[in-house]
Amino acid sequence: MGHSVYLDHASTTYTKPEVLKEMLPYFTDLYGNPSSVHRYGREARKALDQARERTAAALNADPNEIYFTGSGTEADNWAVKGTALANSKKGNHIITSSIEHHAVLYTCKYLERNGFEVTYLPVDEYGLVDPEQVRNAITDKTILVSVMAANNEIGTIQPIGEIGAIAREKGILFHTDAVQAVGSIPIDVKEMNIDLLSLSAHKFYGPKGAGALYMRKGVKSEQIMHGGAQERNRRAGTENLPAIVGLGKAIELAVTDIPQRNARLEALRNRLIDGILSTVENTRLNGHPIKRLAGNVNFSFEFIEGEALLLSLDIKGIAGSSGSACTSGSLDPSHVLLAIGLSHEIAHGSLRLTLGDRNTEEDIDYVLEVLPEVVQRLREMSPLFNQNKGGRTYV
Amino acid sequence: MYSEQVMDHFMNPRNVGEIENPDGVGEVGNARCGDIMKVFMKIENDIIVDVKFKTFGCGAAIATSSMSTELIKGKTVDEALRVTNKKVTEALGGLPPVKLHCSVLAEEAIKAAIEDYKNKQAEKQTADSI
Ligand SMILES: Cc1ncc(COP(=O)(O)O)c(C=O)c1O
Ligand SMILES: [Zn+2]
């Protein structure tokens, strides 16, 4: 086998060995139900409490403000639907951004079909939400502002502290989808005036299928999952304890050395960005040059289509992702790329490479060796590409 | 996700390129929906003696472009018109259901090129008869 370079860490990460090690006993030996009275149950409860404490500590929250869920998606759904339902007497207006993950966006669309009004704030060419636009969008009907901490596709980091301050000043709840941000940017829910925050373990070297919602004490929210009395009567369903233990360990690791890990990732990221810009013509970097996640690289290559690019890279052992329509099963390219003002054709030619802790300089150099050839091969096949003129201009 | 044949035609596409002074050209699709195919044909006595294509699109679009041009090369214009996207897809060992729409492109581009050829023929005849 030749090279194998995984550059899709924003989709999911591997589980770190030290995380897995803490999880394993909860499958085979400490398998009690945390709700049970007996010793098995008490042991499980202890582990659940510890995971909750670790998660709270990572966010500067109180353990009582952490609720475990089955995914980041569930945390987003709960945050948005739960607060909308609980505060509908106060108002029916929600403010969010046009580049949220579908877990927030489609939840908002669902609420729109059920009597709520949603403002989808535009972003600038870098994908930034303007806090002043948040302020201006607030009406006396507004009950929730939901803006993601960092975008999953283009990596743009939002000014959530500023947005949180505005929401707090106006007495409106502020939710942030921090699924991509945890472990990558320091988060302090108190300092940033965050009322609700979603996270997901498999984005920071924990297991899949474990998420959490931070809900500040006193936040009015409806239950979404009804049933047993788990999670202090607010989220029914027997806890996925091994995964939650993994989440607790992973988040503890993820927030301890952010500056060092980011410095390493940023160096690799910049090597990749600079390398691509200097070897491939007619490309653009999507997202913000500085306010971006340390591991995120997102390019559009003119005249070619993203899925064809992914396939070609995959054959060379490089795993990435794309916002092209042909990778999504829909006919439209990524809503994020369209929201930053890209034309459909440029959006179709996007490639996202997201770095993780295991990536090395050799990985980056291998990509830089392979990518220009691959892009050139596809361009030579493209009717949009004119070799002599270096490309046709779009109308 | 893709069959071996699809990957083969994607990695080693047949008939890529352009033809100078073609007898028929067809371009279909648009960059908005993500796929564009342009077909060039050299036609002598109603036989497609050469065909080339250029495609902007996904793996399925490129593979169907390649396979369909293979299937019509050397055929008469009428035979070529009977090469449907279904036949092309079958020859490729099938496509994932979500990718079927990408395979329609090739059939349409071939039809467009033949139509262009027929229009040009008709024009020539009118010109000749003046
Ligand atoms: C920003 C963002 N929000 C939510 C999610 C959904 O998280 P999960 O995969 O845990 O449901 C993701 C992951 O794809 C994400 O990137
Ligand atoms: Zn396609």
Give structural notes.
The complex is a heterodimer of chains A (395) and B (130). Chain A is of the alpha/beta class and 395 residues long. Chain A has helices spanning 17-23, 25-28, 39-59, 72-86, 102-112, 131-137, 160-170, 230-233, 241-256, 258-279, 306-315, 325-328, 335-339, 344-348, 361-381, and strands at residues 5-6, 66-69, 93-97, 117-121, 142-146, 173-177, 196-200, 211-215, 283-285, 296-301, 318-319, 350-354. Chain A is built from 15 helices and 12 strands. In chain A, α4 packs parallel to α5 (102-112) and α6 (131-137) runs parallel beside α7. Chain A is globular. Chain A starts with a strand and ends in a 14-residue tail after the last helix. The mean pLDDT of chain A is 95. In chain B, strands 1-2-3 form a 3-stranded antiparallel sheet. By secondary structure, chain B is of the alpha+beta class. Chain B has helices at 4-11, 59-72, 77-81, 85-91, 100-129, and strands spanning 24-30, 35-44, 47-56. Chain B is elongated and about 55 Å long. Chain B is 49% helix and 21% strand. Chain B has a single domain (4-118), classed as Sufe protein. Chain: A (Alpha-Beta Complex). The model of chain B has no long low-confidence stretch (mean pLDDT 92). In chain B, β2 and β3 form a beta hairpin. Chain B contains 5 helices and 3 strands. The chains are: A alpha/beta (395), B alpha+beta (130). The A-B interface holds A 303-308, 311-312, 315, 324-327, 329, 331, 333, 343-345, 348, 380-384, 394 and B 2, 7, 10-11, 13, 16, 27, 31-38, 54-62, 98-99, 101-102. Zinc ion (ZN) binds next to α2 of chain B.
